[in-house]
Amino acid sequence: MIALFIGRFQPFHKGHLAAMKQMAKEVDKIIIGIGSSQYLNEADNPFSAEERIEMIKAALGEDFDYEIILIPDINDDERWVEHVCDLVPEFDVVYTGNSHTKMLFEDAGISVKDIELVPGINGTTIRDMIINNEDYSELIPVRVLEILKRLNVEERIRNI
What predicted TM-score, i.e. pTM, was given to this entire model? Predict the structure, then answer.
């Protein structure tokens, strides 16, 4: 069975990693869709698609069977599921923790399974912690922390 998991990964965090581990127990392969892939250097989307790919590959290593696909935003809910399906290889189920994404795929007749969210871990919280000079290191996989340090994430996010 092949799963589709879409996220912005701004940045990739331990909640994303927990979702990957959950899916890996239940499916044979994961298609990772990087949503809003065309955006970068914005408050909600500080990282480029290439940087997000680097984070995902660093966090997952060789432990998972996955493929990464870029999914640019079209800002049109009525066409979005069709847009996604045109871009990604065939899949059997969508995994998501986002209620809006769940509704859109279910309305299109596509099977959806909830991921088990990790309380307190999401990209918005992490970006806010960075802005407020709070320690976010426990929320990020070690290999991703190394990338964020190299990208000078604190200065970048505070200057956006």
Answer: 0.95
